[in-house]
Automatic annotation (TrEMBL):
Name of the protein this chain belongs to: SET domain-containing protein
Residue intervals of the SET domain: 384-506
GO molecular function: chromatin binding; histone H3K27 methyltransferase activity
Entry-linked InterPro entries: EZH1/2-like (IPR045318), SET_dom (IPR001214), SET_dom_sf (IPR046341)
Keywords for this protein: Transcription, Transcription regulation
């Protein structure tokens, strides 16, 4: 690290951070006192009289009697003392007594399963906090800590930003150098998996405090990599795509593994052989015409790094093609290619095709479990028109169009969770009396408590005690779709529009 004014960069970052921290704390104490003072003197809210204070019945219509109440409004001055008082008339409307809605759980709407794995190990809040019949202690044991007792202090975000700004504008330190000291409590620049403070500051409003010197219109540098840095740009774009070969969705919610850059490939064709493949010059000044150059062409570090990135991805291209990607003459590309692979004909060349000799040339896919038709119905998302409305058991799902035996009614979507989270959420679901979890496979369950579609309201019907036959008109079936387990709710009989969709939850559901 380069010394600046005799002080190492990290010492400078530490001292500016400490300076801003002290200023912020000083401001916060005064600001908090300023806010609290009026509260300790008097209430700021208008005083609303009770109905017994009603002063006037206005209007003489038989059908509509309007109750008018006089309300006293007090205004307070900055120091909290009453400044003025006035009286206004408010009309009181007597609302009809409303029927309470059936208890139900709301959720975020999703059209595809979302991988959750496990809930945060920190308990975010105490469910049923005022309900003595819920076993809070037992539920708390599902977590390792309590979120509200952790040290995270959002004030440190504005303090870090201010310190970074001062270090950059007053002390002339590049933001990259400030970030690499690791002294500030937050990273300024984003990494592929975690947004940095600069990005966060653009996404939401941070606290405005008196000591800030950051102009309102100031923009911190973007976390987007420089257009000259090909590798970082590719890494960023690559991370958007799902690593599952069956999945074509960018920003896929199901396969949340990070998509790393492919490992660098080694050349499989000798350079002399590659050069022999070029039959005619690609342009005036092609290496075929002017031969090898001895003096290094004037390339920046970014130019060389871009060629290295391209060679890592596709080393078996002729220099004329690489030249098009690098926007450089091919004889210059050839110079740096030789520099990057010093003795190309002596390289230990890998021949991947020989390595897999004896293995089958293509993978064989066999879906032993399911019919093509059922899977493709889920894949194509052809669902029935549905309506969620009051049913015998809270809310239920009703068909708005007829359905035939075998039709896919809807896909059951939700969060994909592991067993531990199934248990902790199960306690809450059991207590509220509404559960939305389906077992999907040995590892995962599908919970639509917090995210789902109308399928989460499908109710249960068991077997008739008279006939011993199931009364359900649909079945929930796990299907393997493109290597992924998904749940479809399928009709097991023909149904008219208006029919409630009913499945059999299974004998274990109501005994859990
Ligand atoms: C997947 S939710 C179905 C939607 C639910 N009716 C609602 O209003 O949210 C499952 C919950 O519905 C209720 N439920 C569904 N069918 C039922 C039945 N046949 N008997 C009793 N409760 C039922 C239970 O509370 C169950 O935990």
């Amino acid at each position: 690290m380069e010394p600046i004014d005799g002080i190492m960069i990290d010492k400078r970052v530490e001292s500016v951070f400490a300076e801003v921290l002290a200023e912020f704390r000083d401001w916060k104490v005064k600001y908090s006192k300023h806010l609290l003072r009026p509260l300790s003197i008097g209430k700021r809210v208008p005083s609303i009289p009770t109905s017994s204070d009603s002063s006037n019945i206005d209007g003489d219509s038989d059908t509509e009697q309007r109750l008018v109440q006089q309300v006293t409004v007090t205004s307070y001055s900055e120091d909290g003392t009453p400044a003025s008082t006035s009286t206004i008339s408010l009309q009181v409307i007597r609302a009809e007594v409303l029927e309470p809605h059936e208890p139900y759980e709301s959720c975020a709407p999703i059209s595809r399963n979302v991988f959750k794995g496990d809930d945060d190990d920190r308990m975010a809040f105490i469910p049923f906090a005022d309900d003595a019949t819920f076993d809070h202690v037992d539920h708390t044991l599902c977590y390792s800590s309590l979120a509200w007792q952790e040290d995270y202090d959002p004030d440190l975000e504005v303090i870090s930003l201010e310190a970074a700004y001062r270090l950059h504008t007053v002390h002339h330190l590049p933001y990259e150098d400030i970030d690499s000291t690791g002294v500030l409590p937050f990273k300024l620049f984003s990494s592929p998996r975690k947004p940095g403070l600069f990005t966060l500051s653009r996404r939401r409003d941070l606290l405005i405090w008196k000591g800030t010197t950051i102009p309102h219109s100031y923009e911190f540098p973007s976390s987007f990599p420089s257009p000259n840095n090909l590798r970082r740009r590719l890494e960023r774009i690559n991370a958007l795509f799902c690593p599952s070969l069956n999945c074509i969705e960018p920003l896929c919610t199901v396969h949340v593994e990070f998509n790393p850059m492919p490992p660098p490939r080694k050349p499989t064709i000798r350079l002399s052989e590659l050069l022999n493949r070029v039959e005619r010059p690609c342009e005036a000044g092609c290496f075929l015409q002017i031969g090898a150059v001895d003096l290094p062409p004037q390339w920046s570090e970014d130019d060389i790094s871009s060629l290295k990135t391209i060679l890592d991805i596709e080393p078996d291209m002729v220099p004329c093609d690489h030249a098009e990607l690098c926007l450089k003459p091919c004889h210059e590309v050839l110079y740096y290619r030789k520099l990057l692979y010093p003795d190309p004909d002596e390289l230990q060349i890998e021949y991947p095709n020989e390595e897999i000799k004896g293995k089958p040339s293509s993978l064989e896919f066999r879906d032993l479990e399911t019919s093509f038709c059922a899977n493709s119905q889920i894949q194509q998302g052809h669902f029935k028109e549905l309506e969620v409305k009051k049913s015998k058991w809270g809310l239920g799902v009703f068909l708005l169009e007829p359905a035939k035996l075998g039709d896919l009614i809807v896909e059951y979507v939700g969060e994909l969770i592991y067993e531990e989270t199934f248990d902790s959420r199960g306690e809450v679901a059991g207590h509220r009396g509404r559960s939305y979890v389906f077992g999907l496979n040995e590892a995962l369950s599908l919970d639509s408590s917090y995210m789902g579609n109308p399928s989460r309201f499908v109710d249960h019907v068991g077997t008739s005690s008279a006939s011993g036959e199931t009364q359900c008109n649909c079945r929930a079936l796990v299907r393997l779709v493109n290597g992924e387990h998904r749940i479809g709710i399928f009709a097991v009989k023909n149904m008219e529009a208006g029919t409630e969709v009913l499945i059999d939850y299974g004998s274990a559901f109501f005994t859990r």
